[in-house]
Design brief:
203 residues, 10 helices, 87% helix
């Protein structure tokens, strides 16, 4: 049971809804509550399906289909994550708008790269190794449910506070943006180091 809760905590740390709100700031500001909820739920369903596949067949996907080591994915994913972190340092939250692309593909664009990223995919593989298949899928579903509930709650708070105190929202965005850059950069370096360590152990 402790492994189950540790798995949920790991996924929640990477699906951090307080930072995801910063990623989705332009979407939160332009969509009403109902439209935002609909788009977010579709994005979470896409992410859940991908996480489930990687949890159940992560090693098989890399060794059989991709024909590459999981360490290679960690290194490449870490580099991508590092570039995103650097974009946040120099551009702020607008960096994620460039990565998401056209708004007509919003659900898929939110799913990737906001929810489906190198960190969350790596975590899904790890959860799949640590837990039985049903428990692994349950941990993923529970983590995603908690994340989406918190994001929707934060959207409601944003809509309420924005009309009365826009300066407070702006301060939160600036602080959270800097924290995001530090967090993403740290995770990316850790992923690269883990990948290199796994790769070097083969020699």
């Amino acid at each position: 049971m402790s492994d189950f809760f540790r798995a949920i905590a790991l996924l929640l740390a990477l699906l951090n809804p307080f930072l995801v709100v910063v990623y989705l700031l332009d979407v939160i500001q332009t969509l009403d509550r109902k439209a935002f909820r609909s788009v977010l739920i579709r994005a979470v369903l896409i992410a859940g399906a991908v996480f489930g596949c990687f949890a159940l067949a992560g090693d098989a996907i890399f060794s059989g289909i991709v024909q590459a080591e999981f360490a290679s994915f960690q290194i490449f994913g870490g580099i991508v994550f590092l570039l995103i972190g650097l974009q946040f340092v120099f551009r702020g939250p607008t960096a994620i708008e460039i990565l998401r692309g056209e708004s007509k593909y919003l659900a898929g664009a939110i799913a990737m790269p906001v929810l489906i990223g190198p960190g969350t995919l790596s975590a899904s593989v790890i959860v799949g190794k640590q837990l039985p298949p049903l428990a692994a899928c349950g941990a993923i579903v529970l983590a995603l449910t908690i994340s989406v509930a918190v994001i929707i709650l934060l959207k409601s708070i944003h809509d309420h506070v924005r009309t009365t105190n826009a300066d407070l929202i702006q301060r939160y965005i600036e602080i959270a943006g800097r924290i995001t850059a530090l967090y993403v950069g740290t995770v990316s370096i850790e992923m690269i180091m883990l990948g290199l360590r796994s790769w070097l152990q083969k020699f």
